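User: Can you predict the 3D structure for this chain?
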Amino acid sequence: MENSEAKDEVSYSGTRSNGQEGEGEGEGEGEGQGKVAASGSDATGSYGVVEISPELLKNTPSNIARLEDVIEQCRGRQKYLAQTRSPSDGEDVRWYFCKVPLAENELAASVPRTPIVGKSEYFRFGMRDSLALEASFLQREEELLSCWWKEYAECSEGPRVHQLRSDTKSGVPLKSDVGKSNQLYTVEEAERVGVPVKGGLYEVDLAKRHCFPVYWQGENRRVLRGHWFAREGGLDWLPLREDVAEQLEFAYRSQVWHRRTFQPSGLFAARVDLQGSTQGLHALFTGEDDTWEVWMNYDASGFSNVVGLRGNGIKLRRGYSSSGSLKPTQDELRQQKEEEMDDYCSQVCVL
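Assistant: Here is the predicted structure, written as structure tokens:
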């Protein structure tokens, strides 16, 4: 596989294609552009200009294999490889988008509002789109995580600091400030470029976790990276909210189950208190050496009616896994139809 092909595949930022469908005017030029796009990001996430061939957007076995190779060669990928022999430990990260658009000025980090994504609320991206998003994410992981945690802190602390100034008497924003705000918003939306998905009809802004249409005006949809999952009252594994998943990932890499003690619940386990909006939420890691299991539960003082945790807790796993059921649920059938539609869109050339 040519390095230029691989790097062009994941380097989607910069400017959109101007209609040229070639792989590049020359092999050396294409490789040089790929290197700029892969490593030339600045604090704002801007990248060099890269022409994208429509062929690279198609959901084909060769494109999927190319993306998998790019991810495996990425240094950031090593953190997410399975590091134990536990059946709860996987390495397949999947990306999701919310069916319900974000409200105007709503921050993506504010949803979902429960630790576990609700059924029928999110769709998985198709395999090729998910791999493209993960490949791009790993190349800018530190920057993107920093942006997400900053936004999450804004959601947790309340109103954003940079509010519009208001008239002290009426409380109405000043006209000059409204005009500046609208102008900045318009410029930001017009210049926004992300990772193409769904055959190039949509793009994903990884910094803001937004999925937005390219060729028409449309609403933003929340995008979620799923690498920790929960099985709640059914066969489907549902992704956890990212602040919870990141705390579990830190505990996992620390092999916290080696420091287990006797718990009031009767388990000999390591307890990890999960910080966030849900009172008393915690995870219990059990196991020895390279075999472990983990459950999420809440204290008696927690809001059980909000999270819906019952009994001994909810089983968790690291990495995506299908239900394996011979009879797919209605949610899984809808998911399959969505992926079939993505496959169809990826084969149609967008003019």
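Confidence is low (pLDDT under 50) at residues 1-50, 158-187, 302-311. The chain has nine helices and 13 strands.
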